[in-house]
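Technical annex, item 7. During the second reporting period the consortium partners agreed on a shared format for inverse folding records so that results from different sites could be compared directly. Each record opens with the tokenized structure and is followed by the designed sequence. A conforming record, contributed by the partner at site C, is shown below for reference.
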């Protein structure tokens, strides 16, 4: 069986880098929410949803990255497709933190813009990988 390797090295590297970046993103965003809750008059009923979105995003990130790694390495479109679906959810949560959280600092804009760019690039590579696996 002389089948060529279809898994994507750029996707694998990007998934790895995104995993590292997400840890930094999570800690930085959490620190900023704590900072904002101390410095600004943060309404109590708005602190919980902002934190909930961040933690939900962190919970989504684990299967999102795992399925991305697994689908790419095993050249299986199903896990990669699921990972792509979870990425859509992560993008929505990221946009919430970029536009609709209670206080948005320039650092929030920077962190979320970087994450959205990475998600976009990763999604494009996932679609290309799925197309290669299916064909």
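Designed sequence (site C submission):
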């Amino acid at each position: 069986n002389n089948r060529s390797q279809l898994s994507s090295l750029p996707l694998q590297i990007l998934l790895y880098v995104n995993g590292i970046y997400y840890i930094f993103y999570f800690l930085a965003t959490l620190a900023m929410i704590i900072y904002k809750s101390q410095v600004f008059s943060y309404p109590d009923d708005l602190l919980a949803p902002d934190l909930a979105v961040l933690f939900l995003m962190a919970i989504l990130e684990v299967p999102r990255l795992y399925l991305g790694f697994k689908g790419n390495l095993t050249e299986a479109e199903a896990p990669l497709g699921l990972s792509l679906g979870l990425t859509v959810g992560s993008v929505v949560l990221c946009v919430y933190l970029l536009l609709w959280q209670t206080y948005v600092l320039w650092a929030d804009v920077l962190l979320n813009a970087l994450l959205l760019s990475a998600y976009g690039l990763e999604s494009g590579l996932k679609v290309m990988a799925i197309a290669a696996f299916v064909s």
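Helices lie at 9-39, 44-73, 77-100, 106-134. DSSP finds four helices and no strands in the chain. All partners now use this format for quarterly exchanges.
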